[in-house]
């Protein structure tokens, strides 16, 4: 069972991102404040759920959360600030939208850039330990997947419908055949050294 909170006395926002390891598309992040007594059997680390379960869990989060928000950072911004800072920026943008605001932050992972002086706790694999982080992981993942499905309609040969921008062999072969799209992250190694350099000349 996932724990509903870290500190019962504080308004805690769980934060997580999706798409950090992708070659294409934005990085998404979500921030979620849940009631302290909230439980639901569907809420778990988004990676442990099927696509159908994630979409059902998203409805649960959106219905019962006290506050929730989703934000993104574009491929061009990722290339400018690097993916780690882009992940923090996406979380900050999600937190900016929360109302009421949190008193403490629960961050999935081992690093974070401080936000408005709020206390924060970095929890490795936190999406499998704390409900607010699990809820954020579900929103970030489902909103990003929906976005990549929309892009797939414009660029079907990259097979984003199935790979969601992650570096599958088919995805890399499509980049080599068609070149990068405007949605690819130019600072990432899209193809092996030697080919990559020619791609962006």
Index terms:
201 residues, alpha/beta, Nucleotidyltransferase, domain 5, 5-stranded mixed beta sheet, 7 helices, 39% helix
Word description of this protein:
This protein is of the alpha/beta class and 201 residues long. The protein has a single domain, classed as Ribonuclease H-like superfamily/Ribonuclease H (Nucleotidyltransferase, domain 5, 2-Layer Sandwich), CATH 3.30.420. The protein is built from seven helices and five strands, in the order E-E-H-E-H-H-E-E-H-H-H-H. It has helices at residues 51-64, 75-81, 83-96, 131-154, 160-163, 169-178, 195-199, and strands spanning 12-18, 27-33, 67-73, 104-108, 120-123. It has a five-stranded mixed sheet, sandwiched between helices. Helix 2 (75-81) packs across helix 3. The longest helix has 24 residues, at 131-154. It is globular and about 55 Å long. The N and C termini lie far apart (52 Å).
């Amino acid at each position: 069972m996932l724990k509903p909170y870290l500190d019962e006395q504080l308004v805690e926002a769980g934060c997580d991102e999706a798409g950090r390891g992708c070659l294409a598309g934005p990085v998404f992040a979500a921030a979620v404040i849940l009631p302290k007594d909230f439980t639901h059997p569907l809420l778990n680390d988004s990676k442990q759920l099927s696509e159908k379960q994630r979409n059902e869990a998203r409805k649960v989060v959106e219905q019962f959360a006290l506050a929730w928000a989703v934000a993104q950072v574009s491929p061009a911004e990722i290339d400018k600030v690097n993916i780690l800072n882009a992940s923090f920026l996406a979380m900050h943008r999600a937190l900016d939208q929360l109302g009421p605001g949190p008193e403490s932050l629960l961050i999935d992972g081992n690093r974070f850039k401080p936000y408005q002086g709020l206390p924060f706790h970095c929890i490795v694999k936190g999406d499998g330990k704390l409900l607010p982080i699990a809820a954020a992981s579900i929103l970030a993942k489902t909103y990003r997947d929906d976005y990549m499905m929309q892009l797939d309609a414009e660029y079907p040969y990259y097979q984003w419908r199935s790979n969601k921008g992650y570096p599958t062999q088919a995805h890399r072969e499509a980049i080599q055949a068609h070149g990068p799209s405007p949605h690819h992250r130019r600072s990432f190694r899209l193809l092996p050294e030697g080919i990559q350099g020619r791609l962006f000349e």
